[in-house]
């Protein structure tokens, strides 16, 4: 294998010759010097506390006590960055760089510092010796910056703390950005993740007329933390065939000699940029392009390139040992003096005295290699998308109101009604081209039918007779059956200054739990960075919810995304469970116009009774929680019981239970409280939407029994209300029960149905004495009758199917 790898690194003469024609030896030497400067700054960030320019011999006090960070990926990424700088200047190219390999954050910081952006954003990190000292100290240091590419890194839109989403983010960034190229350095370890492996198919959704382009650069350095990579052990031919099969045209740049590699990279980048421009030019001139193979680059270099070759008798460069810290000098490790000497030799091998002047500033002839102004990768406005964000033109959601003569008198499908509003969002923003829907092949299933009256699905691959709603300029991104891709595309779209939402089955939104969590963390950090501009919120619609999965069964039932999001920072997350269409319209309009949040809406798509007029819905959603006076009978008096509900199905069953209680026990004073904004339940001291204790007690009382029917897992309600005064709380919710059955039986199996709610209410009212015994018995009888009926007939009891609210 070693001999095979050496063979792969042999230069191809034609590239060198052509590269030298593009760049003379002087230019190549300047490129190499700039690369050495970036490598020096990146290595210095790993190790140095002081003596940043090595003006004197290195001492142990100059070096950090604990070295935390990564080196293996860094030189290769620096190599890419310096060559992209040249491309930006040569073609006046609008370009951002997304770093996929994770924890090599010191490379991005180093390059942002070299072109001056970092010092503009953080003036304390000045472009002189003292600024360099601070730059080095802060890296992976208490009170400093993280070791990975992060929100604090100018020019970044991709969190380096988790692998797999770089290409998805890149495509999201270039949709509707016709002049932008998103270059992506893809780590060969990262390429083994499921999301990244799927991302190669994203090119089927790129429209060369109206979109920009993505330039993937697969960085093959052969190893992960301690294992070889799959791509790293594939032959040249296997890799070439793989990417050809994914509709990419791969160009290979392979080797380990710096000057040879600079020439090869320069030639290859010129070729692929001109090829991208040619594809776009022809498409925009009206040429029928057919099946496009977009160019990409496979860059093979040694891991830890230019770093230490051997430490303690073990090879480092070109092995997995270069992945993190190539020379350990942590207190207590052996060979401290020898290691210190090796660190100094390594750092001096970059010849910082040739690269920085007496003040510690990059010399002018190297500064000239970097782009200027907004063309700098670290200063590109697309990487700080709030700078480019423009408000959506939104229709008046009240125009889509359901006319409601009385509560429950009309049945509608909430998502169909929302579809009309979204259709007109598309129409109003057709010229701006700054709004899209994202979701995995579920737009029709989630009943957003009306959206297709305004646009189609995005599809830039083969179309055959019988296909529906496919178009190269479609704005509904649901032709990819991958939650990862749809979420990643949306995040990239939002982070570069546009608007959209993700609609998914509730159970399968769990596939992107971690992605949403990372985005929430990104927003949390950005909220603390004054230079980061606000972006449109990440809006997630969870339809086909747990209570609508009687036909799909247990596998499609999971409301746990609410629990996952509720644990994130309160200044970022919002959770809404509208009980009907008018409330959904009000909530969605609020969410799509908001900034810097993760908004989750849990919605119904099946026919449901409608409860509130639009005027009532606006008031209710604005407050987030409230008493439904028309369903209550405790006005002016203390209630005997509070019947609370949150979610479309829990609301239906609660109202049905209330109707049974009021008929059987008319003397009972019942208060019905509906919750739309779930975070209202949390104390105001913990969440900005939370109710004060006084307001909570006014709604729920201090001691009366609360029978709470909740959409999700009951424990979430207990967690949110843990510090409240009223502990007399009984929550009904999903209990991990369900199979192929009837809709009502799903509720019965999880004890969220009206009969169980009535029983629980009676059992929590000891003042009834024996007066409630007969009602409990009736409810038990009904449950038996229900079970026998569905097993015999195959559908729910007529009294369930035909039930209507009666005041």
From TrEMBL:
One GO MF term attached to the UniProt entry: aldehyde-lyase activity
Keywords annotated in UniProt: Lyase, Thiamine pyrophosphate
Keyword field contains Lyase: yes
Enzyme class name: lyase
InterPro entries assigned: Phosphoketolase (IPR023962), THDP-binding (IPR029061), Transketo_C/PFOR_II (IPR009014), Xul5P/Fru6P_PKetolase (IPR005593), Xul5P/Fru6P_PKetolase_C (IPR018969), Xul5P/Fru6P_PKetolase_CS (IPR019790), Xul5P/Fru6P_PKetolase_N (IPR018970)
Xylulose 5-phosphate/Fructose 6-phosphate phosphoketolase N-terminal domain ranges (all copies): 24-387
Highest taxon of source: Bacteria
SUPFAM superfamilies in alphabetical order: Thiamin diphosphate-binding fold (THDP-binding)
GO biological process: carbohydrate metabolic process
Family according to the record: Belongs to the XFP family.
Protein name: Probable phosphoketolase
Species the sequence originates in: Subdoligranulum variabile DSM 15176
């Amino acid at each position: 294998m070693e001999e095979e790898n050496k063979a792969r690194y042999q230069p191809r003469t034609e590239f060198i010759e052509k590269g030298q024609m593009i760049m003379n030896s002087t230019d190549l030497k300047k490129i190499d010097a700039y690369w050495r400067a970036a490598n020096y700054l990146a290595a210095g960030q790993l190790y140095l506390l002081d003596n940043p320019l090595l003006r004197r011999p290195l001492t142990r006090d100059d070096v950090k006590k604990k070295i935390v960070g990564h080196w293996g990926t860094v030189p290769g990424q620096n190599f890419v960055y310096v060559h992209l700088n040249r491309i930006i200047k040569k073609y006046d190219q609008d370009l951002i760089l997304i770093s996929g390999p994770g924890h090599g954050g010191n490379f991005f910081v180093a390059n942002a510092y070299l072109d001056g952006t970092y010092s503009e954003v953080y003036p304390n990190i000045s472009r002189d010796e003292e600024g360099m000292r601070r730059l080095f100290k802060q890296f992976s240091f208490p009170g400093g910056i993280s070791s990975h590419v992060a929100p604090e890194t100018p020019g970044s839109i991709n969190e380096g703390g988790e692998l797999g989403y770089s290409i998805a983010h890149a495509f999201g960034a270039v949709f509707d950005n016709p002049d932008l190229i998103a270059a992506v350095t893809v780590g060969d370890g990262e390429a083994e993740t499921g999301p990244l492996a799927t991302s190669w198919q994203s090119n089927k959704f790129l429209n060369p007329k109206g979109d920009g382009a993505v330039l993937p650069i697969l960085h093959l350095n052969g190893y992960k933390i301690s294992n070889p990579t799959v791509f790293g052990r594939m032959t040249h031919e296997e890799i070439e065939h793989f990417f050809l099969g994914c509709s990419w045209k791969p160009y290979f740049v392979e080797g380990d000699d710096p000057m040879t590699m600079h020439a090869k990279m320069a030639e290859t980048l010129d070729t692929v940029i001109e090829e991208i421009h040619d594809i776009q030019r022809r498409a925009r001139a009206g040429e029928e392009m057919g099946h496009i193979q977009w160019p990409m680059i496979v860059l093979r270099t040694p891991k830890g390139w230019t770093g230490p070759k051997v430490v303690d008798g073990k090879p480092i460069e070109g092995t997995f040992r270069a992945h993190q810290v190539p020379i350990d000098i942590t207190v207590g490790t052996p060979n401290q003096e020898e290691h210190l000497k090796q660190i100094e030799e390594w750092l001096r091998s970059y010849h910082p005295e040739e690269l920085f002047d007496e003040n510690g500033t990059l010399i002018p002839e190297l500064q000239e290699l970097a782009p200027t102004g907004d063309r700098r990768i670290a200063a590109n406005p697309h990487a700080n998308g709030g700078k480019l964000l423009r408000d959506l033109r939104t229709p008046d959601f009240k125009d889509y109101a359901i006319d409601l003569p009385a509560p429950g008198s009309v049945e509608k499908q909430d998502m169909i009604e929302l579809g009309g509003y979204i259709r007109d969002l598309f129409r109003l923003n057709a010229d701006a081209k700054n709004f899209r829907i994202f979701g995995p092949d579920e737009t029709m299933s989630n009943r957003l039918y009306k959206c297709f009256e305004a646009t189609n699905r995005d599809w830039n691959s083969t179309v055959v007779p019988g296909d529906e709603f496919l178009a190269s300029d479609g704005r509904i991104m649901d032709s990819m059956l991958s939650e990862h891709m749809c979420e990643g595309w949306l995040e990239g779209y939002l982070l570069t200054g546009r608007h959209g939402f993700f609609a998914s089955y509730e159970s399968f939104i769990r596939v992107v739990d971690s992605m949403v969590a990372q985005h929430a963390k990104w927003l949390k950090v950005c909220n603390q960075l004054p230079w980061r501009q606000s972006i449109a919120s990440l809006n997630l619609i969870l339809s086909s919810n747990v209570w609508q999965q009687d036909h799909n069964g247990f596998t499609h039932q999971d409301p746990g995304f609410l629990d996952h999001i509720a644990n994130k920072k309160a200044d970022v997350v919002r959770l809404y469970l509208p009980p009907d269409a008018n409330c959904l319209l009000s909530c969605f309009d609020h969410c799509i116009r908001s900034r810097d949040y993760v908004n989750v809406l849990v919605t119904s798509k099946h026919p449901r009774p409608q409860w509130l007029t639009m005027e009532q819905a606006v008031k209710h959603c604005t407050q987030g929680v409230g008493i439904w006076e028309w369903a209550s009978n405790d006005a002016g008096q203390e209630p005997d019981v509070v019947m609370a509900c949150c979610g479309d199905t829990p609301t239906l069953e609660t109202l049905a239970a209330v109707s049974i209680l009021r008929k059987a026990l008319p003397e009972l004073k019942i208060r019905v409280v509906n919750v739309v904004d779930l975070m209202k339940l949390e104390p105001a001291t913990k969440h900005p939407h939370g109710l004060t204790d006084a307001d909570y007690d006014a709604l729920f009382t201090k001691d009366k029994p609360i029978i709470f029917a909740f959409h999700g897992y009951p424990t979430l309600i207990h967690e949110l209300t843990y510090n409240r005064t009223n502990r007399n709380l009984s929550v009904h919710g999903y209990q991990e029960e369900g199979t192929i059955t009837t809709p009502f039986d799903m509720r019965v199996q999880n004890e969220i149905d009206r009969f169980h709610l009535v029983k629980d209410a009676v059992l929590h009212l000891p003042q009834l004495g024996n007066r409630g015994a007969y009602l409990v018995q009736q409810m038990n009888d009904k449950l038996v009758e229900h079970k026998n009926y569905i097993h015999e007939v195959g559908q729910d009891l007529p009294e369930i199917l035909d039930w209507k609210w009666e005041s």
